[in-house]
Amino acid sequence: MVFVVSDGFCRDVQSSATLGGDRLDVTRHVYDTMRSEYVHHRCRHRRSVPVLLPSTDFDSVPCWLKNTNFYLWPKHYQELFNVFYNCHENLKCTEC
C-alpha cells in the first residue's frame, strides 16, 4: 500500500475538525491504520510504502513517520519501483 505524504495529508491528519466529510474521514482512517501497524510491527512498515512529495514541508510530517524509511518523489523513484517489483516477484505463485 502506497500512501503519499503531502502538506494536505499532514494538515488533514493534524486537524482538530470533527466534520470534514468523506475525504477527511478516509485520510484519517488510512493514517490511523498505518500508525497502528507501524507501532504493532516494532516501528517498521510491513505493507505500506510512504512517499513524500517535494512540496511537503518536512517539519509538518508526523513524528513517527520521520523515524521510518520513506521515499522522496521523484528523487527516489528508482528505489520505489524496485520495491514494487520485488513485492510483485514475492507474490508470484510457485505452483502455477
Give the number of DSSP strands.
3
Proportion of helical residues = 40-55%
Task: Characterize the biggest β-sheet.
Answer: 3 strands, parallel
SSE order in H/E notation?
Answer: EHHEHEH
**Which class do the helix and strand fractions yield?**
mainly alpha
How many domains would you count in the coordinates?
Answer: 1
Average pLDDT works out at 77
Poorly predicted tracts of residues:
none
Strand content: 5-15%
User: What distance lies between the first and last C-alpha atoms, to the nearest angstrom?
Assistant: 25 Å
Strand order of the largest sheet: 1-2-3
Which radius of gyration do the C-alpha atoms yield? 15 Å
Outline type:
globular
**Number of helices, counting only DSSP H or I runs of 4 residues or more:** 4
